[in-house]
Amino acid sequence: MTGSERRTEIIDQIQKSGFPISGKSLAEFYGVSRQVIVQDIALIRALGYDVIATNRGYLLNTSPRVARVFKVCHTDEYLKEELCTVVDMGGCVENVMVNHKVYGKLEANLQIDSRRRVAEFLEDIRNGKSSPLKNITSGYHYHKISADSEETLNLIEKALCEKGFLVEKK
Question: How does pLDDT run across 31-54, given as a tens digit for each residue?
């Protein structure tokens, strides 16, 4: 069983269970260490599942958020406006990806879900010696954006389109 398959089964177990499931019992069931289960839970959370760790085990708080990948393009001066557009409408910018003709697919995890995190990200860019990943592909890049519903993602898509950031689908 791969790690991905194990995590899918863990999600299913936690969802179907009416009570907390301990990390120890999950580790024993899957024949892995407790630390592997802790790492699996962290990856499951990164997928948008609200897993709560209690003193009796893991619970799933809500259903997962929905996500969509958007292809966008803009200059550095519009970086703040793009990110704030997403977070102001209830979205989370999970990552940034580019498809470079030489290096292939490059991706960085962002997890930007508030104006405070937008400000922190922009400050990190300003204080660093690096530029945004999008700059190696002439401003073209992709974001995986998550939200509470497809409706919210549709509103984010519309706003990004109206502001000229969204690259038209062919």
Answer: 999 999 999 999 999 888 888 888
Could you give the CA distance from residue 142 to residue 114 in angstroms, rounded to a whole number?
19
- Contacting residues for 60 by C-beta, under 8 A, at least 6 apart: 11, 14, 15, 49, 50, 51, 52
Q: What is the pTM of this model?
A: 0.65
Number of Cβ atoms within 10 Å of the Cβ of 18: 5
DSSP string across the chain: --HHHHHHHHHHHHHH-SS-B-HHHHHHHHT--HHHHHHHHHHHHHTT--EEEETTEEEE-SPPPEEEEEEEE--GGGHHHHHHHHHHTT-EEEEEEEEETTTEEEEEEEEE-SHHHHHHHHHHHHHSS---GGGGGTTEEEEEEEESSHHHHHHHHHHHHHTT-BPPP-
CA distances, 105 to each of 12, 97, 98 (Å): 31, 7, 6
Nearest to 36 by CA among 7, 5, 1: 7
The answer to whether 115 and 87 have CB atoms below 8 angstroms apart is yes
